[in-house]
């Protein structure tokens, strides 16, 4: 039974991929192409998506830090709750540091590649 479902799902995926490619290849007179038309345009779209995800990530990280601080303040001396709140703050700060490093690696690598020319 699982094999039949897998085969049907794979077939539907293949048909949808082929139909999507065919739809992209059709040129309709009077209608301009929507979206990027070059590799540079595609890279710009991806950069914009990453920028928005990055902003959203920091908003969520700040909310988690506020939530952890609230948990810390309302622990009322319960050692287990205090420990959990401290761990939440540590995890949020580590996540922010990792995100900053990820963005920094992009800059470092692009500077390295540009200086080699």
From TrEMBL:
Residues of the signal peptide: 1-19
Keywords: Membrane, Signal, Transmembrane, Transmembrane helix
Transmembrane segments: 49-70, 90-113
Pfam family, one: T4SS_pilin
Superkingdom of the organism of origin: Bacteria
InterPro entries: T4SS_pilin
UniProt name for this protein: Uncharacterized protein
Species per Swiss-Prot/TrEMBL record: Candidatus Wolfebacteria bacterium GW2011_GWB1_41_12
